[in-house]
Amino acid sequence: MQGIVTAVSRSGVHEFSKDNQPSIRLLAGLGVQDDAHLGVTVQHRSRVAADPTQPNLRQVHLIAAELLDELAAAGFDVAAGQLGENVTTRGLDLIALPRGARLLLGDTAVVRVTGLRNPCEQINGFQTGLLKQVVGRADDGTVVRRAGIMGIVVTGGEVRPDDPISVELPPPPHEPLERV
């Protein structure tokens, strides 16, 4: 499987959206340099409040540009970085990846996929009705989360728009992604 990075984003403060950058630096075991979610332990406010000693399984947030295309077709104006992602991709079905898949971004960076982003009500504060577009229910009643995936940095490096992305799948059996 091959894809491409279409945008990279970060924010040094806890805001909903992140600013696009010419490049970001991933730091092994920590996340995105100069991003508010950088750290060995959890940095998302709600999770810090619950237990600040939890490991940070949400160091890097990735969203498919194809989701942004779908949102635009549904009448929403959402650009790369505005849903809080660090890396916007094209050409990969991120949601279908198994837990433990490794994404090789650019020349050296490697991110191990840990799970699905679980979007919260803040997304409706960004644009009313957007939450329904990224979280729904399958025919069997199970929750379907489409707001991207989360991962941890295994190997650091610079990541830029137009960098290639390769996927290494873990050995079978493959475990489907769950929210982290």
Automatic annotation (TrEMBL):
Gene Ontology molecular-function annotations: catalytic activity; molybdenum ion binding; pyridoxal phosphate binding
PROSITE patterns the UniProt entry points to: MOSC
A Pfam family recorded for this sequence: MOSC
Region (Disordered): 161-180
Domain MOSC, chain residue ranges per copy: 19-168
Matching Gene3D superfamilies: PK beta-barrel domain-like
Name of the featured protein: MOSC domain-containing protein YiiM
Organism: Longispora fulva
